[in-house]
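User: structure tokens for this one?
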Amino acid sequence: MDIYEEAQGVLAVITEQSLPKTKKAIAGKFNEDDCEADIRYVFPQVFVKKALFAIRVFLKSLSDEVSGDIVGVKVPRFGIYSDKDIHTMDRWHTAMEYVADTKQAIDWVQNTDSSGLESQWNFKMVSATFKPIGKR
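Assistant:
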């Protein structure tokens, strides 16, 4: 099994959880034990951005350090999610965009007739001689 097939197996386990567009993300300080621990889904990217914004606004409002508590968001009827988990969801969405872009590039390369590319784009081969610095 190559790394791509292995990644597809893991990605198939992670699903995007649907949420109403009006779902609130209430930022605050929470006990680590109150946060969701076994998360096998991600929230939609729009909601993740909303949650990250709420966390940033909350952190700016604090006059003291967070101490032993965890900053996160409470999502009514879903639970409490640490800022680390919300950031992970944001990185997941970014990674999925990269995967889609990479797949699109691979498809383009596989479906493009490379024999006409040189003349189509008028490429010219340039030869250059490189010498190490300090030697003549």
